[in-house]
């Protein structure tokens, strides 16, 4: 290769640069290698990596608030939570339009559950209000209908607000086969004419029409709008420019002009009063501040919760004392995993040493004993520890019988940290012994002999010569045991009680009981990050090359 | 001989070793190694030679008998207190230590001061011409270099006795020959006693002051290399050391230190009786290939002539190797020097070959 410096690139026999020829030759090999691993790679991507990524994404994803309450999200933008006042009537109106659609779509309970993680009580507030919100605006509905019975007719609303092109295509669709999946129902489209003059009404009627079409499979041509649409009409008309309405033509002018003239004389009500009437919590600015704090599409809220903080409208704050559990759980998980790892090293090292120094036959027999626990289910082994360790269990019975322990003061060895550490050390011990054994097996006896012949005592020969060479096995075993135990679930669940549970038990609780998947994902992401950081630290300190599984 | 009475530096006195309580791996070993002597234990695998070395090093205990070092029994002294340097088959350099740390190790465990240690390590490295490699790891060295380091490590704490367990087995031929020379040079220069184990007879012959040929747990012959080669005491040694032509026959009579042997095809030859004692005994007559002549001019008076047929001629550069049929034996090999006047025999040729009766030894069958 040295001649490359003075005569340019080295050329292959065919005159092309050697480097390119080599790459070309290697490419086919690489492709073939890739093809060989492709099935597994795809399998893992689809069934493992993708779900995990999706799950972890939930820890920051927060679209439910802005998706369910789009108008409220916008309207709350101008509200200052520090004012100590509840938001304006406009916000209540926007919230009404959102909530009635959400209630119709049955999404308000989900949203209530989500916000309940941040502020207890919101869930029931939403449920309660969701049942009542379609009555809001009834007062105006009645007065409009008294004014002109045409306001109760679905046809009136369609004529006023629908885009004529939509009406014809919708009628076409109704005339044909409605079950035909190839002909989708044309969704309601509002006309532009009234959109500028009566924006809230157009918007809320469109929402109503689409909900009627998609959720209830009704035709907007046959359904009277829900009451909040009349509320919107009242609000629009009281603010609308009369000149613009006078400039309208046809039925729009004949209906809207007298209505606008009449609204000034309508009996009125305040939306906020209606809400507070349903539940006085709506008068609490904190509820609105919570909604406002969680309107962004992405939130750090779950992660903050996972480290005992919370996001409030005022920024990040520490959780109340009685709700701070995660930091403690993380600390406990780390501490107990370290304890388990340590006891596995202490118990496993001598066994692995013995295994690697016995004759092949004896070591095979012993190895079977080491692997024997794998033949029994994890549950059985854990339950066995329950039998052994409980207060009326075997060990306590023996101790009492021997007189070492007073019958009234039986030892508490289970449903606490001690029980978890004992049971998990037992369960994870093979994962320490096997890598240790496979490394020790490769250390020839001659090293220790050589050390002794050079004058080292048994201990020095072991400590200075044998032990350093077995460190890669300890490293591999420790990483394996630590990573396994940090995410362990079943055993701490069964024998951990309240003081011996791990963070994983809390994750499982949020996945299956509280259904707070976002928090579960955040906790899981933190756990993953901790493992990766420890792995990185190990690599920096010991070197991952020093890890050997034999 | 009873070695105990000997004043050897290393003495094995009626040593026996059994691993399973049924078979003896070493049967009644008596051996005395003089101070400064280079003694090689040579033998096929399983002959007990390595076991003897391990007993001397302290890694195996003798089932019976005493091992004495400098007059003191060492049976109950643990290996690390024996102060014996040892070079292992695969060098056993500690892979997690640098070369210098490997060499410092024996000095450190002996609690030798730091400056002293450094001086000794440097001297030992220079001795094996590896002065610049102190900072390397064993894995970064070639086989020959590792060998030198292993040697330096065994010598750095200045032991009076060094054991070597087939130290050159992993090297290629050229390097091995070079190291053979280096080891003997070092051993003689430093005046240390060396017990060397090998199964390579060339190594044994070229390096040693004396060679102990092991077989079946016993020393078959203990002699300087020339004596071992030229006067093997029994058929095993004759076969094991060097190349050897054998002719089977029966002793007819023995008188005046000459045995008359009737070969199996009826031919009568004279031979030197070594371990045959009476007529009628079966015997294996042994003749070294290079002691057989094919030109009558070179043979003087008293040479025994015999008819032979050439079967194969092999050109080997410095010598010719010719396979003949002699007295019914088709594996009779002779070696002739590639000299300008040397004749190249052709297969099928009928010739007369000859040797002196002194070179022809009648051994046990």
Which oligomeric state applies?
Answer: heterodimer
User: Largest beta sheet of chain B, briefly?
Assistant: 6 strands, mixed
The CATH class of the largest domain in chain B is Alpha Beta
Number of strands of chain B: 19
- Principal-axes geometry of chain A comes out as elongated
Largest sheet data of chain A: 2 strands, antiparallel
CATH topology of the largest domain in chain A: MetI-like fold
Examine the secondary-structure arrangement and name the CATH architecture of the largest domain in chain A: Orthogonal Bundle
Between the first and last Cα atoms of chain B, what is the distance in angstroms? 25 Å
CATH superfamily of the largest domain in chain B: P-loop containing nucleotide triphosphate hydrolases
Features:
heterodimer; A: 550 residues; mainly alpha; 4 domains; two-stranded antiparallel ribbon; elongated; B: alpha+beta; Rossmann fold; OB fold (Dihydrolipoamide Acetyltransferase, E2P); 6-stranded mixed beta sheet; 5-stranded mixed barrel; 8 helices; 19 strands; disordered N terminus
Could you characterize what this model shows?
The complex is a heterodimer of chains A (550) and B (365). Helices cover 67% and strands 1% of the residues of chain A. Chain A is mainly α and 550 residues long. Chain A folds into 4 domains: 4-57, no CATH class; 65-134 and 271-318, no CATH class; 138-178 and 188-263, no CATH class; 326-546, MetI-like (MetI-like fold, Orthogonal Bundle), CATH 1.10.3720.10. The model of chain A is unreliable at 1-5 (pLDDT under 50). Chain B is α+β, with helices and mostly antiparallel strands and 365 residues long. Chain B folds into 2 domains: 3-235, Rossmann fold; 243-364, OB fold (Dihydrolipoamide Acetyltransferase, E2P) (Beta Barrel). Chain B has 8 helices and 19 strands. Chain B has helices at residues 49-57, 99-109, 114-127, 143-155, 173-190, 201-207, 225-230, 235-240; strands at 10-18, 24-33, 38-42, 64-69, 72-73, 84-87, 161-165, 193-198, 210-215, 218-223, 245-255, 258-263, 268-273, 282-287, 304-315, 319-326, 329-337, 350-355, 361-364. In chain B, helix 2 packs across helix 3 and helix 2 packs parallel to helix 4. Chain B is globular. Classes of the chains: A mainly alpha (550), B alpha+beta (365). The interface between A and B is medium-sized, with 19 and 27 residues.
